[in-house]
Design goal:
Blueprint lengths: L1 H12 L2 E2 H10 L5 H4 L12 H4 L1 H17 L6 E6 L5 H10 L5 H4 E6 L3 H11 L5 E5 L10 E6 L8 E6 L2 E11 L7 E10 L19 E4 L1 H16 L2 E8 L11 E4 L2 E3 L9 E3 L4 H10 L3 E7 H7 L2 H11 L4 H12 L8 E7 L13
Parallel strand pairs: 2-3, 2-5, 3-4, 5-10
Antiparallel strand pairs: 1-7, 6-7, 6-9, 7-8, 10-15, 11-12, 11-13, 14-15
Helix pairs in contact: 5-6, 12-13
The structure holds S-adenosyl-L-homocysteine.
The site of S-adenosyl-L-homocysteine (SAH) has 18 residues, from helix 4.
């Protein structure tokens, strides 16, 4: 069990970072949340935009095809997805993109997936597409070539660290153990104040560096790694990366670590491995990191606005006409994806591009 492994680790080496706790809980190859099962869908733990409506992936597919056209129709194009889940978004994207003559012949689909269980689901979902498909475990392992990279709800599950401002200095917030009750033999995971961050204080979002004592901020080293990998890849070949995720447009103070199991929240340190652990993406820091790595950053664009600007309603009208019985279901899908109380505003898109590409579809120039 993951809880036992983590307890042993803390007993022998002292408190661990939240990132270490998340990594184990989500990706332990035997008992990790993602490693062992398919958690996505109405009957499982959480639901995502591509699982709500086929229109979501279709519009992503149009961006992929437009990107290929913008790059001058290269014949060795890579369509890369980070964290493809059940493969639903890619399947819908390919259905839309294949209407562009030459796109499928030029394109190799590359899936970056950590979970063996989900890889099997992806293979099943995407088999019928007839596309050339390969799997790798990291971006650095993808063969060279012009590329479009997409990740929906990928960045939110990259392990985060947390820091607390204490006596004018940033300290890491760690996970330790405490007796369940006074005198009891059992222990629970608890947050504890760790040592000063030192050098790593530069991971604190710029806007928040001078916060008052007691402030808690989240550090997203995983996002920076992804940005660095993109910059490396895009230095020599054209590339566009599109991330869709949830979080504020500007860096905010506060603890957003959450655990979701069967569509319900549970305390984040309780029963590691049984729930999805995520934290809000900090779009401001993501864009800043992109720019300082030499990429062009577009966004953050609210999901609802983006989908409408991309023609969601026109697509819905066509779908409703061919399937009149589904009219109200399609209307409900639009509401869930675009309403500002639903996913329309909290979810946002950011595009990180190599130089010399026109602005991505659905984003205003700049
Ligand atoms: N994009 C899908 C799934 C989102 S869940 C959807 O929208 O439905 C997050 C996905 O990212 C899962 O497939 C998970 O296994 C994968 N993942 C998370 N961290 C990863 C990492 N470091 N490397 C590769 N895949 C990862």
């Amino acid at each position: 069990m993951i809880a036992d492994t983590l307890r042993d680790r803390i007993r022998s080496g002292g408190p661990i970072s939240i990132a270490a706790f998340m990594t184990e809980a989500l990706f332990d190859p035997r008992h990790g949340f993602y490693a062992t099962k398919d958690p996505i869908g109405a009957g499982a733990d959480f639901i995502t935009a591509p699982e709500i409506s086929q229109m979501f992936g279709e519009l992503i597919g149009l961006v992929a095809a437009q990107t290929w056209l913008d790059m001058g129709r290269p014949d060795d194009f890579k369509l890369i997805e980070m964290g493809p889940g059940r493969g639903t978004m890619m399947s819908d994207a390919l259905r839309a993109a294949r209407t562009v003559p030459g796109f499928m012949e030029a394109t190799e689909v590359v899936l970056i997936e950590a979970s063996a269980a989900l890889k099997a689901v992806q293979a099943q979902t995407l088999g019928p597409s007839g596309a050339r498909i390969g799997w790798v475990d990291r971006l650095g392992a993808v063969a060279p070539g012009p590329s479009f990279i997409v990740g929906n709800e990928f960045l939110d599950c990259l392990p985060v660290r947390q820091a607390i401002r204490h006596k004018g200095e940033w300290h890491e917030r760690l996970v330790g153990l405490a007796p369940t009750d006074e005198g009891s033999d059992t222990t629970d995971f608890v947050f504890v104040l760790g040592p000063p961050l030192g050098q790593d204080s530069n991971l604190v979002p710029e806007r928040l560096r001078d916060a008052d004592d007691g402030a808690l901020v989240e550090l997203r080293p995983g996002d920076r790694q992804v940005v660095d990998q993109l910059a490396e890849r895009f230095a020599n070949q054209p590339g566009r990366a599109l991330f869709i995720d949830y979080g504020p447009a500007t860096s905010e103070i506060g603890d957003t670590l959450q655990a979701i199991r069967a569509h319900k929240k549970q305390p984040p340190l309780q029963n590691p491995g049984t729930a999805d652990l995520t934290a809000r993406v900090d779009f401001e820091s993501l864009m800043q990191a992109g720019r300082s790595a030499g990429l062009t950053a577009h966004g953050p664009q609210p999901q609802g606005q983006w989908l409408v600007d991309m023609g969601l309603e026109a697509r819905a009208a066509v779908l409703s006409q061919s399937r009149p019985g589904k009219r109200s279901e399609i209307a409900r899908q639009i509401w869930r994806l675009t309403d500002i109380e639903q996913m329309g505003a909290l979810f946002k898109l950011v595009c990180l591009d190599s130089a010399d590409l026109p602005p991505p579809p659905g984003f205003s120039a700049g």
